[in-house]
What does this fold into?
Amino acid sequence: MATRKAHLFLAQVLVFTVSLPLAAVQSGRYDDDEFGPVVRAYLGYLRNEQEVVDDRVSRREVSSGYYRRNSNRIKALRQMAIRLARETHNDYLPELEAVAADEFGLLFERPRPASSFKVGEIVRNTFRFLGTVRSTETFYLFARLDPYEQAELVEKSTSRLKTEPAPPEVGPKALSRGRRVAP
It folds into this structure.
């Protein structure tokens, strides 16, 4: 009888210890020990930013629309930071940018349609598109490439231009030099 109770107790402990971390992952919660100091610092920064936004709205310094958008942006950044940290198992986060579709002009001179971005795509040798996060509204998340990544991309593109053959000349000058231009 005592061994049966001990087995039942151990089974309950096992179920509890397995289900607790799973519930935390599904709810978006995390334990401070789960991440290294860099990721924890970034999550702490986001927590502080939320407190500032909360304080400003409580003193009626900002509109409710401003408050909602920035609170949702902070949630989106938190979700992406946690996702990146968990996927990479690395204590490093790139500089993250979260923008709504109507804010693309903040990052790009000539914004393109939101639907045209592909996950992992490099945009203007400056950003990597990470994906979307729905936090009441949809935010598009980008990682700003560090200067080394940017320099490497520029070097690759210039070396590729040097090795590619020049396009055939087209126009009046090509015709005047006696070159045949395909119709």
